[in-house]
């Protein structure tokens, strides 16, 4: 194996830090980049881009959902000029299935980059229950408010997303591939909370809300208006049972089944993830 230098954008985030850890475990150099990392990277400050890219063989690209497409296009163009040979983009299954223009445009930009590329389209992360305040905070407090009613979703473990990203960044056979990924089964929010409660011994109350009330709850406690609308929109998709189907990208990329939600819960509980 030839060791590679991989620039990991969003390198302190849910998927980025796992990509960096798995790269390091395999003997590669993970250049962790974010606004607060030793390798500073800011989507809104293009003066931070050249140093981050210099000497990198590949890039794990975590886009700025709130940023303009022009920034994304300029970065991809610079990456190719700097000699990057592989790009792996974190996209989203829901973004494609709802024809989100920004998600589609970013994918098209990477496809047209002229270098080897791989697109990752995961669903919602299992880790949202332990690392994203709009769910994790409620788990710790013992009451989760949600907008999905009895809709189910096949939450994916972020460790699986990272494993597919690392394979695409360091191995042959993944160029030009699109991996749409989910967990192995769909769960409702109450079913997911029951699994966490059983593993942790805590009582967790699930409180369904109408979508307008749920959006106000998100805005009041967690997110600016735009982000709250995005979470509410995804919740509406789950609510009408349009997002409960499975996708087999993990098996396609790695030759194994994705981790079950119960495995994520057991690992997180053992590590004290809910206090």
UniProtKB/TrEMBL annotation:
Q: Which Gene3D superfamilies match?
A: NAD(P)-binding Rossmann-like Domain, UDP-galactose 4-epimerase, domain 1
Membrane-traversing stretches: none
Q: Which residues form the signal peptide?
A: none
Superkingdom of origin? Bacteria
**Domain (NAD(P)-binding): residue spans on this chain:** 10-171
Cited PANTHER family? PRESTALK A DIFFERENTIATION PROTEIN A, PTHR43162
By what name is this protein known? Uncharacterized conserved protein YbjT, contains NAD(P)-binding and DUF2867 domains
Tell me which species this is from.
Answer: Actinoalloteichus caeruleus DSM 43889
């Amino acid at each position: 194996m030839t060791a590679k230098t991989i620039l990991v954008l969003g390198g302190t985030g849910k998927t980025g830090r796992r990509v960096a850890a798995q790269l390091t475990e395999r003997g590669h150099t993970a250049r962790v980049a974010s606004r607060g990392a030793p390798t500073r990277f800011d989507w809104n400050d293009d003066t931070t881009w050249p140093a981050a890219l210099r000497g990198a063989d590949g890039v794990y690209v975590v886009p700025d959902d709130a940023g303009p497409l022009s920034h994304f296009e300029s970065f991809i163009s610079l990456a190719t000029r700097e000699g990057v040979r592989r790009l792996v983009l974190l996209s989203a299954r829901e973004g494609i299935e709802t024809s989100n223009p920004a998600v589609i445009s970013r994918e098209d930009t990477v496809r047209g980059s002229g270098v080897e590329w791989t697109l990752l389209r995961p669903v919602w992360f299992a880790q949202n229950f332990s690392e994203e305040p709009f769910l994790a905070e409620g788990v710790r407090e013992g009451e989760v408010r949600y907008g999905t009613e009895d809709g189910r979703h096949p939450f994916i473990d972020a460790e699986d997303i990272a494993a597919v990203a690392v394979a695409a960044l360091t191995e042959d056979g993944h160029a030009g591939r699109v991996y749409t990924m989910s967990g192995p089964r769909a769960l409702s929010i109450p079913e997911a909370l029951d699994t966490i409660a059983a593993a942790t011994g805590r009582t967790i109350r699930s409180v369904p809300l109408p979508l307008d009330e749920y959006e106000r709850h998100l805005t009041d406690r967690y997110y600016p208006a735009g982000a709250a609308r995005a979470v509410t929109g995804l919740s509406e998709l789950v609510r009408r049972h349009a997002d409960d189907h499975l996708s087999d990208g993990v098996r396609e990329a790695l030759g194994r089944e994705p981790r079950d939600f119960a495995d994520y819960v057991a690992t997180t509980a053992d590590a004290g993830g809910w206090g």
